[in-house]
Amino acid sequence: MAIPQGITLDDIHEAAARLDAGASHPFGEPRKYQAVIHGTRYPPKALVGLAARRVLGHDLTPGDFSSGVGPNQAVAVLQSLGVEIVEIGHADPRFPPAAWIFQGNPDHFDIDGYLASTTQITWLANQHRQLMAKGQTVYLWRNSGRGGAIAGVVAVGVIEGDAESRPDHSPAVPYWKDPMVAAAPAFRVPIRVVEVATAKQVLKSKWLEEDPVCHDLPNLRMRQQTNYLVTSSHADRLARLWAKTGRDFDRSDLLLTLAAYAETFGQEVSKLHGSPVSNTALLAGRAVTSIYSKVMNFRALDPRVPGMGQPNTGQPTKDIWNEFWTGSDIDTGALAAAIGSAMEPGTTPASQEALESEVEHTAPEYSAEGRKRLVIHFRIERNRKVVADAKAKWFNANPNLPCCVCGMSFRETYGDIGEGYIEAHHTEPIATLDLPKVPVMDDLVPVCSNCHRMLHRSGSPDHRTLEARLQARSLLDQRHTDPDA
Ligand SMILES: [Zn+2]
Q: Are 226 and 275 found together in one domain?
């Protein structure tokens, strides 16, 4: 059995009401997507399974149909009815978005022509329009379309006002392939274009697909929407990539890449996440493939491996090579020192007040070495983004934000001023990590300030050990105070 034809939005709302009332059903927890109705999240498959009752006379069961985005699967059916779909673990629609990706298809609309003609544009607001607000950053993404254009980010803009239902404004009209689309009222949001990429500066989709942070951008995973919320981690990475794409390597980029070359000398050069090339791409704010090419340029300059690598590099790359080439080896000590001094002042970890306390405690140990300092700096920046994402996820699961060790909730204990407050603890201590692991949300647990301090004093980052300790003590207390025990 498949999903029957004829399910309406009313049927979906009816199903949501049944789920609200606690209706039992055989559907499991969703793994990838959730449906949002009036601000509440629902499992898409259960919603559709229960909504089928009016048409069929009975609910569907999990084996009857699939939950996915393909034709006549649950998510696709919900989307076709206008139900908002969000990805689990991605930007939460109840929090202000870090940034947007707005997608366009050159088969329907000449994006390049439009962007060349004006900086005041409008874009269709088909998803999440209630979250769009003045001042938010938008990355404009061009799909490849049938013409095979290079897909990726082609411009950056800022939202100028609210989305309104109206025909498209006149500057856009000539660029629509179908004039009927331009004339039809639809929700459109005004955007001021800040920068349009040259051909060299397009942030290519294929780079983002292999990027250690952006590989799971929502539009790469669920391709048919127009408006995507991106997480703060994605937004941060996109901003850095956008700032550097198509621009020449500067001195610190070249130093970092030479360090990656030194690290991979004599080995196959990998582009995989966690490899020196990938880590350097994160540090330098550049695409993995561009760091890889530059590593290959250095290889071509290395007289130890004649005839290898990619020749034809520019003078700045040769200058850096000559600066650190001793005649028999790369002077990695001098290179580390140079990387250290290329680091901008004011970016040392201790100057950033929003840091996690464990980072503050452990960071100075790394300050001796240039590259390590940069790596740690990067880790901290990234850390802040991951912490913000983790807190949003915890809030979504339980707005009381209880401590995972003692159960204390700042909201329940302190009222208003405790609302939304919790600290994030790294279960993997940064001090013991070798270079450089990018933190992920799963490494974080929510803890109250007391438990957080005690975790660091205990010498074990494992929150379960502290929890066991706390339980043992409370048992002991009961024995002391309860004469019958
Ligand atoms: Zn606690």
A: no
Range of the domain at 26: 9-87
**For residue range 33-88, what is the model confidence (pLDDT) as tens digits?**
888 887 677 889 999 999 999 899 999 988 888 877 777 789 888 988 888 887 76
Per-residue pLDDT tens digits for 108-121: 999 999 999 999 99
CA distance 133 to 230: 15
Instruction: Give how far the C-alpha of residue 9 lies from the chain's centroid of Cα atoms, to the nearest Å.
Output: 31
Q: What is the CATH classification number for the domain harbouring 201? A: 3.10.590.10
Q: Look up tokens 């700042």; give the residue.
A: 410
Q: 216 and 271 share a domain?
A: no
pLDDT digits (tens, 9 = 90+) for 252-272: 899 989 988 988 888 889 998
Q: Considering only residues 474 and 150, tell me which one the structure prediction assigns the higher pLDDT.
A: 150
Specify if 360 maps to a domain.
no
Q: At what angle do helices 251-264 and 315-324 cross, to 10 degrees?
A: 60
- Of 342, 369, 400, the residue at which a domain comes to its end is 342
User: What residues sit around ligand 1, an ion, with C-beta below 5 angstroms?
Assistant: 403, 405-406, 408, 448, 451
Distance 463 CA to ligand 1 centre (A): 10
Sort strands 137-142 and 99-104 into parallel, antiparallel or unpaired.
parallel
- The CA 452 to ligand 1 mean position distance, Å, reads 7
**Is the overall model pTM greater than 0.70, yes or no?**
no
Q: How far is the CA of 464 from the centre of ligand 1 (A)?
A: 12
- 227 and 104, same structural domain? yes
* 468 C-alpha to ligand 1 centroid (Å): 12
For residue 125, being part of any structural domain is answered with yes
